[in-house]
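This week, study the protein below.
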Amino acid sequence: MKKMKWLRSLALACLLGLLLVGTALAQSAEYRLNVNRNFGYGGGKQIKGLFTLSVVGGPADDAITKVTYLLDGQEMAVKEQSPFDFQFQTESYPYGLHRLGARVETASGKVVEVAPREYEFATAEQESQAVTGILGPIGLIVIILMVIGGGSTLWTLRHKEENQRLPLGASRSYGFKGGAICPRCGRVYPLPWWSFNLLTHVYAQCSFCGKWAAVVPLRSREALDAAEKAELALADSQPVLKNHDGEAEKREQLEDSRYVDEV
């Protein structure tokens, strides 16, 4: 009895599978109208510019011999040679809502009406408004990022000389974001509030050397104290900087000029 129930279930599953496969094949055999933009504007159902109409799908064993493209049921163009595409300008037709469709004729003599697609042929004003609506927020974000970047650079330049006079290993204060060790100069600096969070890292500008980098934030006082003490090791690795104020160099040149080899 149980075996019979199992066989019935298996048969029903196979039948359902065949039905699904048949439905999928029937759907793949349907003709569809493609509307591809070549140049211009396309936002949702609003289009403006140069577009190409084409018919795709259909049974593989019944070749297309003729395609008539329709606009609101009226003939736009007739194509009798492959690839049966039709290119058109929306400006050549009245503005407003339209139904684009196609009529397909096949080698077996079938005539198939392709499901139409609805579009609004937009005016120049509508295109301008749509583009402004898209680019406006993007431009605002770009301006905000530029202001933040410019402000951070000015802040860094203003405090750079002051920070460079801070002795290695000296204690310093940090903001609510904590601090980080610069991968370039090796010094620990406070993370400014405008630094960008990148999951486990923070993208920020060093207030000592001015380098932008993705750094690991240090937030505990113990970690920051350890980073400050680690700066002391930099004293042995950093070369002694020469005086570049010009006075010492001028004195050396003056001394050298006093000695001239006699020929």
Remarks:
- The chain is about 35% helix and 30% strand.
- Residues 124-164 form the longest helix (41 residues).
